Amino acid sequence: MPDPTVTDVFNQLVLANGKLDQIDTNTFGQTAALNTLNGAVNSGFNNTVNALNIVAQINIEAVKLLFHLTKQTDTMICALEHISKNTCGILTQVTIQTQLQKQLRDDVDALRYIAESAHPEAALERQRHAELEAKIERCCPPDPSEPACKYEPCDQPEPAKEPRLPRIDVDDHDPNPDDHNPEG
Q: Which has the higher per-residue pLDDT, 166 or 101?
């Protein structure tokens, strides 16, 4: 095989340079596509991070409301315990008082019978006295007695504050904005 001439070497270099230009053109198109894809991935990642931040803010406000509801529940439990304790005390007293009243009624009936039999004039005097007391009471009623129970309210939480939820703008988070373009 004969030695290549300078022209042969030049022609080979021109041919190789053409191939390199073709490779560069093909690579440039692929680089542009990769850059577009990289931009879309970065945009999607940023949108995802923003959406997750919004979800986190919503969760924080939900936890605040949940804590407030827990405080309200504690207040309701306290009030129910007061009711339960008072109801138990009332039931105990009612049972005792009912027994005492039955016993007292029987004793008073017996005493009245004895007293009226022994002193009929005293029974008549007692009736007049009762009528006089009724007139006085209509004119000047007695002071009301103190209540047996004084209510002590439980600690109550402050009213829940309106949650500060982030505003979600649907258009900002549209993954395919071109889908809504009537010209596209």
A: 101
